Amino acid sequence: MSVIAASFPLSPTTMHEAIIRDFYTAFNRKDYAAMQALYHPQATFYDPVFQQLDAAEVKAMWQMLLTSSRDLAVEAHTIQTTGDRGSCTWEAHYTFSKTGRPVHNIVHATFEFRDGKIYRHTDRFNFWRWSRQALGGAGWLLGWSPIVRNKVRQTARRGLDAFLAARR
Fold first, then answer.
1. Distance (Å, rounded) from C-alpha 120 to C-alpha 132?
2. pLDDT of amino acid 2
3. Are 39 and 26 in contact (CB under 8 A)?
4. Residue 122: φ, ψ to 5°
5. Residue 3: per-residue pLDDT
6. Do β-strands 73-82 and 39-46 pair in parallel, antiparallel, or remain unpaired?
7. Are strands 53-54 and 85-96 parallel, antiparallel or unpaired?
8. What is d(CA 76, CA 105) in angstroms, rounded to the nearest whole number?
9. Measured distance CA(36)–CA(162) in Å, rounded
10. pTM attached to this predicted model
11. Cα-Cα-Cα-Cα dihedral of 152, 99, 71, 166, to 10°?
12. Within 13 A of 28's CA, how many CA atoms are on the CB side?
């Protein structure tokens, strides 16, 4: 009697873990198109710099960041999923283009999934730690302050708006 291997659909937890792994594998390869394909059409994204982005904006943000990056290396670990939610810690090593300073950012990401895609994506990291690395002395002295945080946010938003306008 021959045994035929049955193909079983992935459980939601396994599928969501695979989505997270695929996302950060594409991120490390600088494959923004693969990252974009993993987002739900109504996705939202939040992080301390860009804050609240809709699906089109988050897709453009990754494209903008990855096409301008020279030496980015990304690694995700501690991936956990339960039901329609997931999380991981990811680390990025890169040179901050505005100052030429090396950055090692440690980020905690949370996800909500819908229809097999990333529906809500939130990245949290220590802004002051990031600013000390990226901005040097100014980050050490004022990286904790709303003045520096708002300036970084405004600069990032202007860059994203210009990138979106150039794509239209």
1. 29
2. 42
3. no
4. -125, 125
5. 46
6. unpaired
7. unpaired
8. 12
9. 19
10. 0.89
11. 50
12. 13
Which pLDDT score is estimated for 140? 82
Could you say which residues of the chain have pLDDT below 50?
1-6, 8
Strand spans (E) along 14-127: 39-46, 53-54, 73-82, 85-96, 101-114, 117-124
pLDDT at 7: 52
- pLDDT of 1: 42
Residue 67: HSE in the Cβ half-sphere, 13 Å Cα cutoff: 10
Report which of 17, 168, 7 is spatially closest to residue 88, judged by C-alpha positions. Answer: 17
Check: CB of residue 55 under 8 Å from CB of residue 164.
no
Report the pLDDT value the prediction gives residue 52, as an integer from 0 to 100: 97
Q: So what's the pLDDT on residue 167?
A: 86
Strands 39-46 and 53-54: antiparallel
Angle (nearest 5°) at CA 46 between 42 and 51 = 115
- Of residues 65, 53, 50, 48, the one with CA closest to residue 126: 48
